[in-house]
Amino acid sequence: MAARPSVLRAATRASRPCHSSINSYSRPAQRSFTTTTHNPRPEISSATTPNSPSHSQTPPPNDASRHGTTHFGFQDGLSESEKTERVAGVFHSVAESYDRMNDLMSFGWHRIWKDHFVSSLNPGLSSSLPPRPQRVLDVAGGTGDIAFRMLHHAHVVNHNPDVHVTISDINGSMLAVGKQRSLKLPASQQAALSFLEADATSIPPSVVPDNTFDLYTVAFGIRNFSNVPAALAEAYRVLKPGGVFACLEFSKVNSSLLDAVYKRWSFAAIPLIGQLVAGDRDSYQYLVESIERFPSQPDFRRMIREAGFEVGGQGWEDLTGGVAAIHKGMKPL
Ligand SMILES: C[S@@+](CC[C@H](N)C(=O)[O-])C[C@H]1O[C@@H](n2cnc3c(N)ncnc32)[C@H](O)[C@@H]1O
User: Fold this and answer.
1) Which UniProt keywords apply (predicted)?
2) What global pTM score does this model have?
3) Hey, what CATH topology would domain 16-37+70-330 get?
4) Under 8 Å CB-to-CB from 159, ≥6 apart: which residues?
5) Residues lower than pLDDT 50 in the chain
6) Domain boundaries, the chain
7) What's the CA-to-centroid distance between 62 and ligand 1, angstroms?
């Protein structure tokens, strides 16, 4: 596997003083910023087709990490590298159909959740003139849904053109779709966008130094990571003090009736739609199983705290009765 630079597109800026104005947290901090957009890591080039996992709706207990292994959907006992490789296989396989499938699987709800997620972070908000620059890292950014919304919100809603977003993902196929989609953005937004191919659990410090970003977002990505605490530690490392970690992820439904309907829909319909529309049942079976395996809202909040983040209030916001949830934390000043 030959090493090659995997930055698909880079808009580099010089280091400059910067101030986080993500409005969920009010404490400002002056700090310097370095944008790094070159990734010398080898690209993951082999896409393993995942084996068909158990189709039971009852996940095994979520204790795999205690035994030094992890899980892939309902299948336990995988090494972290095996899971990473299988997840890569899933997203290589679904990349082209991903955006269409998202709409079909969620009846378009994912757009509403993503809009809400981005507005709740209010990127680009600044009380000073000229507005303060911000650097955003959208991890597991895939085909760009969050990054594009961030740029629109910052540049158009908050009139702050000095907000730069880096879309980072382990998967070159998803990034390639994102890069293609980004060509439809206004030129100023394209110039404020970079792509970085990297594993969220081990972002090389030579590529993204400590204390680089004001905001770290991850949407519908973290449940796929082979080691969630390692990814949270990386989020902590790359954020500046005062920087915000924000995660949008499928979560635990808090009404038993809604839960029953939702489980029936996800386990019966989503793999079938995957088969009919994308010709890929197994990948979509994995996606619904991975949702089941993700920790509950209080457990995930505990993990965010254990990574060192300050968590205000309850620490999460349920969306659509807990089908999805937003968790936030702040790296202490
Ligand atoms: C369900 S998609 C979400 C994409 C996008 N954030 C969205 O909301 O539409 C999950 C993404 O996580 C990425 N991913 C999985 N494991 C990863 C890892 N270890 N590091 C970085 N990205 C990863 C996949 O390649 C995929 O693009």
Assistant:
1) Ubiquinone
2) 0.80
3) Rossmann fold (3.40.50)
4) 124, 131
5) 1-66
6) 16-37+70-330
7) 21
